[in-house]
């Protein structure tokens, strides 16, 4: 009765199930990421947010995209917003099958930590927990972000302890639940005035429970044909040398001038940086208004009149992914030549020093945080009650974007976009469309 013809599909199903659970998890040790087998993990990643709410719920679409990601040589994606109550099994399994790991942001438009009047409370924490609860199920969840570009101006340092307090609580919750030690990190805007203070503050505590597990930077400094020193990367490297936790580019890929060459990849994986940096994430997968896409699902349509379930903001967000030419192939060619081996975990462990990073000192009119002050408690708001931060005057809403432009670390006019990274703009636009948060957008305008 039980013929071979019937048995084969069952066997294959069984094999596939094994293959899925076989994706190795990623852990952070010292300043590097490692696979379970002790090989160092370098990120060749893509920012993936087809729809503002959650791109990991449409399995068929994930599979179509993953085939193209695999062609590029992608081994990680970053997703900014997810719905913790949705079913992600199909997409997460398809990603695992392709050897692709996920870095996911824990916040929403309404729960993100804000630079202005920063606070960290139970409502925010609950939401962060829900996302962690959902994604810790998957072995290919490689890391979570407690914030994206919370600090955007030179005078925004008072928000830093709130970001770190969130990381402290997420790490404690992760450990209390007995979850795998999924690295908890932060994705920073590239603000020269805050560097290296913010970066160092996040990693300098002698108490590991009050440090990030990784730090990352959204940096668009390398535009067109540039060089390690001409781009500013040598300065980033100076500030990150001997950094004690993994650091990587959580967004990169300047698009002025076009076409994008992605030559910065060979610097990030090259002799000056590869011992320090764990790779990069290219912004972004889908071609939309901001014009950063590697993939298109069709020409733009008039947002005022176009209708259809797959259209938002004038762009189709589903279908057959068509590479944007020549950018897609340029990235593919870059990555195809870059195969850093790094260091084996066993050898690295022996070389790990216990020397810690010096915490940045508080300076008047600059970095306004006393690192020896206790972190904010859950429920605390800056300026109300005892705070780890020196009280700074609250940024006026109107001036906050302006000063971010002047505080931007950019070199040359081609980098003007770095003042507010494209994803911030896009997600804010998305929030207007999706949830009608007109107030939030008006605040930023
Ligand atoms: C360790 O695992 C990774 C990911 O599966 C793989 O690429 C690498 O070749 C493995 N290293 C060794 C030494 O087997
Ligand atoms: C936490 O802050 C958010 C705003 O970020 C607010 O909507 C919410 O009511 C606050 N929750 C608590 C418990 O105070
Ligand atoms: C380290 O930090 C955690 C979280 O804030 C705290 O509970 C613990 O007491 C600290 N440990 C030491 C030795 O200070
Ligand atoms: C960090 O980089 C800046 C330039 O971007 C430089 O002025 C500063 O000295 C560097 N600091 C360290 C500690 O490397």
UniProtKB/TrEMBL annotation:
Q: Which GO terms describe its molecular function?
A: 1,3-beta-glucanosyltransferase activity
Q: What is this protein called?
A: 1,3-beta-glucanosyltransferase
Could you read off the lineage of the organism from its UniProt record? Answer: Eukaryota, Fungi, Dikarya, Ascomycota, Pezizomycotina
Q: How does it sit in the membrane?
A: Lipid-anchor; GPI-anchor
Q: Which family does it belong to?
A: Belongs to the glycosyl hydrolase 72 family.
Quote a single Gene Ontology cellular component term: plasma membrane
UniProt organism field: Penicillium olsonii
Residues making up the signal peptide according to the UniProt record: 1-22
**Positions of region (Disordered):** 370-414
């Amino acid at each position: 009765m039980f013929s071979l013809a019937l048995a084969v599909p069952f066997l294959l199903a069984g094999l596939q199930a094994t293959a899925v659970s076989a994706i190795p998890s990623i852990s952070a040790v010292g300043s590097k990421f490692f696979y379970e087998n002790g090989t160092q993990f370098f990120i060749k990643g893509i920012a993936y947010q087809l729809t503002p709410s959650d791109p990991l719920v449409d399995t068929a679409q994930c599979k179509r995209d993953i085939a193209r990601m695999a062609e590029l040589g992608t081994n990680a994606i970053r997703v900014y917003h997810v719905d913790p109550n949705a079913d992600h099994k199909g997409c997460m399994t398809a990603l695992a099958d392709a050897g692709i790991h996920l870095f996911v942001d824990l916040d929403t438009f309404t729960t993100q930590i804000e630079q202005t009047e920063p606070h960290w409370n139970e409502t925010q924490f609950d939401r962060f927990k829900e996302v962690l609860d959902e994604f810790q199920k998957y072995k290919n969840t490689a890391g979570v972000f407690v914030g994206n570009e919370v600090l955007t101006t030179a005078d925004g340092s008072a928000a830093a302890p709130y970001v770190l307090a969130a990381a402290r609580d997420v790490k404690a919750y992760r450990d209390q639940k007995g979850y795998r030690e999924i690295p908890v990190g932060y994705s920073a805007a590239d603000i020269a005035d805050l560097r290296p203070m913010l970066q160092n503050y996040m990693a300098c505590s002698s108490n590991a429970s009050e440090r990030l597990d990784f730090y990352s930077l959204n940096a668009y400094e390398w535009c067109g044909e540039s060089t390690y020193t001409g781009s500013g990367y040598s300065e980033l490297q100076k500030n990150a040398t001997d950094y004690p936790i993994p650091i990587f580019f959580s967004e990169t890929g300047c698009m002025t001038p076009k076409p994008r060459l992605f030559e910065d990849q060979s610097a990030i994986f090259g002799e000056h940086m590869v011992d320090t940096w764990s790779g990069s994430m290219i912004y972004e997968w889908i071609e939309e208004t901001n014009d950063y896409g590697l993939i298109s699902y069709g020409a733009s349509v008039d947002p005022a009149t176009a209708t259809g379930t797959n259209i938002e903001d004038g762009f189709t967000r589903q279908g057959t992914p068509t590479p944007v030419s020549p950018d897609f192939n340029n990235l593919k060619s870059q990555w195809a030549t870059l195969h850093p081996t790094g260091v084996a975990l066993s050898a690295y462990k022996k070389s790990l020093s216990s020397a810690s990073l010096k915490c940045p000192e508080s300076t008047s009119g600059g970095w306004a945080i006393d690192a020896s002050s206790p972190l904010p408690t859950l429920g605390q708001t800056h300026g109300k009650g005892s705070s780890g931060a020196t009280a700074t005057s609250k940024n006026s809403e109107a001036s906050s974007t302006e000063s971010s432009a002047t505080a931007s670390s950019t070199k040359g006019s081609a980098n003007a976009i770095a003042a507010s990274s494209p994803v911030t703009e896009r997600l804010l636009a998305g929030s207007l469309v999706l949830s009608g948060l007109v107030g939030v957008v008006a605040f930023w305008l």
